[in-house]
């Protein structure tokens, strides 16, 4: 896949398309016409309203993720319908990352895309270096074509600080799930936030889309700025498996 050519073709296709829904379908057709495989992607749900892509849960997750089989929100409900269809191919993930980032940039006010709505960066239980390297190449090209600083953001259950720093250098901001600290994200009841451990260097921020109707990921900078601003994002338990969640900080 020639990434620069693909970005140019995708951008050219959007010239006269005004709405995100039509643009999403049009870019899907471009990939199909080019014979490029992709993982499922969409325009986001009620909470995010932001283009994002799905990877297969299990195959791409670290085996020690505490939610795997125990309340992961992508193992049931609408996200599950998408993730089970994802092929296990780094190039397919990169293709969807490129499309989502172009859509978010053009139709969501210059915003980065939501990466890894489901799944993670692993293969066979370890970080998939081929995928990481290809995502980095795509991120550099997207930055150049779109003139953006942060091109995508998401969350990982893989504990590898060096990897997160490496990705941030090319404009991919990945928050560390299930750790407390700057640039991290945890699931914890919003009503019990006062009981969480405190330390200098970070502050807890409740995800506002869970507390107010008008905030969506497409207009909220908290996650994309969390590493830079030292925020630890707190999600109230959510998703179809929330009753089975084994909370980490109780
Ligand atoms: S904190 Fe903001 S960006 Fe992060 S998940 Fe919530 S609404 Fe989305």
Q: Could you please describe the fold and organization of this structure?
A:
42% of the residues are buried. The protein is built from 7 helices and 10 strands. The protein is an alpha/beta fold. β4 and β5 form a beta hairpin. 34% of the residues lie in helices and 16% in strands. The model has no long low-confidence stretch (mean pLDDT 93). The chain has one domain. It is globular, with a radius of gyration of 17 Å. The chain has an 8-stranded mixed sheet with strand order 1-2-3-6-7-8-10-9, with helices on both faces. Strands 4-5 form a two-stranded antiparallel sheet. Bound molecules: iron/sulfur cluster.
Short description:
By secondary structure, the protein is α/β, with parallel strands linked by helices. It has helices at residues 3-13, 20-34, 77-83, 90-107, 129-146, 161-169, 222-229, and strands at residues 41-42, 52-54, 113-118, 122-123, 126-127, 152-156, 172-177, 184-187, 203-206, 231-235.
